[in-house]
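Researcher: Before we compare anything, I want clean individual predictions. No alignment, no superposition, just each chain on its own. First chain goes here; please echo the sequence and then give the structure tokens.
Model: Echoing the first chain and its structure:
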Amino acid sequence: MLTSQPQDALSKPVLNIRRLSKSFGSQLVLNDVSFEVAKGATVCLLGPSGSGKSTLLRCVNWLERPDEGAIFLNGVRVGFRSGGTVPMTARELAEVRSHIGMVFQHFNLWPHLTVIENLIEAPIHVQKRNRDEVIAEAEALLERVGLRDKRDAFPARLSGGQKQRVGIARALAMKPELILFDEPTSALDPELVGEVIAVMKTLANDGMTMLVVTHEMGFAREAADEILLLDGGKIIEHCPPEAFFSRPKTERARQFLQRYVQA
């Protein structure tokens, strides 16, 4: 289990990012990024394409290794053993990752497995949990996302919106402490976006801790507890949604809102 047990654990952020920087060659993609995500909070990462949002998510899950800075999940440093100088082994990193769910742009479902098999694969084989218990929980999750009738369907038989809802249920099946969403509606036809957003709003209302990269301004306005606007790899706005949408502090934020928010 991922453990870090300070006496005031409940007041600690689930995710703490400190002075994170990442370059690809000569291109600085993330530049001294710091913020926290409290337990039960929904934080939306906004910004133009190329601003570093997806790279930031990949660093949180250690799919990309940052050049500088530190990432802590419930007080445990991601990627390094206690002390912060010795890299985690693959097994140790897998243990940390098992507490972080991720929902991708393009679903990433296993095409050769049915919907229920997609949900139970990791809890059974990675977390070594009881098969009957995992199946029962997976069926409840499919009910939660409105797909109980698709239990035995293969992904090829699902719409894009249904695939993404399965992706969300699959992330939830691992009982994560944090879910990362990387533009989960960007690959969907416009008429299918609403069904995925509805599930995400329910999760936000239920207190799931979420870090969401999105261009869905309605979701950010209605469901987020905090907004982070990235531009050129830096956080240029960090505030509650009401302040961001009504009283942006920077000219760059005002330009962004004019482009992405319909009048």
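Researcher: Okay. Second chain, same rules.
Model: Second chain and its structure:
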Amino acid sequence: MVAGMNDASEMFDVAVVGGGPAGLAAAIALAQTGARTALVARRVPYSDNRTTALLGGSVGFLEELGVWPLFQDKAAPLREMRLVDDTGRLIRAPEVRFVADEIGLEAFGYNVENRNLVEALERCAAEIATLTRIADDAVSVVSGDAAVSLATTSGQSISAQLLVGADGRHSLCREAAGIAVSRRPLNQAALTFNIAHTRPHLGASTEFHTPQGPCVFVPLPGNRSSVVWVSSPKEAERLFGLDDEALSAAAERQSHSILGRVHVEAGRHVFPLAIERPQHYAQRRVALVGEAAHVVPPIGAQGLNLGLRDGMDIAALVREAKASGEDLGAPKLLTRYGAARRADILSRTFAIDVANRSLLSDLLPIQSLRAAGMHLMGSIGPLRRLAMREGLAPSWRAG
């Protein structure tokens, strides 16, 4: 339901700021605990054509929320992942293939266009009685001893025991909580677009490793794939500026024609890459999720999967706190949330950073180590299966 914009200040158990996929999922999960939840976010159509590979427990989480059935027919299964060294260097790694049925899975996950995911989340959110939608932007947040207060652009004000900041990398909620963030720009940019092609992808995602970064072709339903092409900022801008015919030819060359003739679909997006990490994941009645809590390059499809696990964990803690009658924004709960998220986020960030640095390095010893590591993963079954399981979700997570 939608709250009227002139309503008097109202107290909620939890308020979520941010209407992206991570914020919507967190709001739904929190409301389904029985907590009176406010979602503060304008309804804005998803503006670009990016996709998300939902891995590990992400699909299970969305199934629990009742969201997965609303878009599963628009998602493509990822049954195989190929890593191909396309650097042309003297020391090259062998190709590595990860196949889902080797670890007893039908698919590693499913790739979906974000606009379809957001549409499904919006539909689900609209049907939950304990979730109040405030279709506006938050302009001020004040964290007090007993509650967090926020005001919107239209002058509406609300309060909550706990505020969940899902408002992106320039988070107002994070700033209000006094949480500092470290930022490390990478000398790389990612170009994203979707393609149609003449050969079937057969559920295989193929990642070509180039001297400037990975270029990955990820299945979409039908003879279509999404492309994430990481390169230097200058090269990304050059590719972005090509007409459709020239970009189609460039993508076909980069894919070594494994998908046949390629045709670029309308819509493309380019963005600079960085690694960002806050000093704390929760503080002063504010818990961070999604890009407010972590920004990583689009390598290994970890970004939104981490964000969904953020929502999963904060909802589980709120459910426990409600059952025992605890204050939902108490330092004890926030400390537990930070502990739950820290190892997961730091381990993923570290793995992505090391993989990226090793690919970009011109040092022969680093190239040798990378090639040796890829060879071991490709040739030693138990090590390959461990890498597959850990790539989907950390095995030490409870539940």
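Researcher: What stands out in the second chain?
Model: The chain has two domains: 10-49+115-183+275-360, 53-113+185-273. Additionally, The CA atoms of residues 251 and 267 lie 15 Å apart.
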